[in-house]
Amino acid sequence: MSDRRIDLTPTLLMNAYAAGVFPMADSADDPEIYWVDPAYRGIIDMDNFHIPKSLAKKIKQGSFEVTVDHDFDGVMLGCADRTETWINAKIRELYNALHGLGRAHSIEVWMDGELAGGLYGVTLGAAYFGESMFSYRTDASKIALVYLLARLKAGGFVLLDTQFVTEHLRRFGAREMARAEYHRQLGNALEMEADFLELDPQTPAQEILQLSTQTSKRG
Questions:
Q1: Strand 174-178 to strand 65-68: parallel, antiparallel, or no bridges (unpaired)?
Q2: CB atoms within 10 A of CB 29
């Protein structure tokens, strides 16, 4: 479905997420937006999140800084900064509007004072819809993902939607889920409340690692 026939607003976008669909564009230069509802949805099973040992070691070393919602648009620009992207100007505008409403959040990883990587997504109920991630420096997006899991678990989230499964995400425990089962779990998550900002931004790295891999208390 193209946005030529509808007024694509933040409210409509949130309603789409609640219905299990999300928007994409064919390229950064294509003004059209279409809705996607995959037959198989990518998710990360939050109770089976896996952190490679080399990454855990790097996180313990702490040669980086992690912030939350500090540079949302910068993260979107980083995610769009690739040869092929589905993030066009309208999508960037919409998600920045959701961010202003407290419905979209970013995690930024800084190295040597510069934005090295990050990710962003949308929250609704106890579901987090991961949109995109990027790295300018080695492992930056992976670090952001670990910090995301810790934050989601601390805040009481039960569903982490990745849209699709890539080899990059599969290393952390991502898997595909049939549409019907995804919609069932989504419905369950939408009936709950969660708080993305519950976790203290100054939480030590060791606690981040423990939080990200511990079993969730909700289900």
A1: unpaired
A2: 9
pLDDT digits (tens, 9 = 90+) for 30-49: 778 889 899 999 999 999 99
pLDDT digits (tens, 9 = 90+) for 58-89: 999 999 999 999 999 999 999 999 888 888 88
How much is the pLDDT for 16?
94
Mean pLDDT of the chain: 92
CA distances from 147 to 38, 128, 163, 176, 195 (A): 27, 14, 19, 22, 15
From 213, 162, 215, select the one nearest 56 (Cα to Cα). 213
- Do β-strands 104-111 and 114-124 pair in parallel, antiparallel, or remain unpaired? antiparallel
The domain segmentation of the chain, as residue ranges, is: 39-84+105-213
Partnered with residue 23 across adjacent β-strands are 35
Question: Which top CATH class is 39-84+105-213?
Answer: alpha beta
The tens digit of pLDDT for each residue in 105-142 reads 999 999 999 999 999 999 999 999 999 999 999 999 99
Cα–Cα distance for residue pair 18/103, rounded to 1 Å: 13
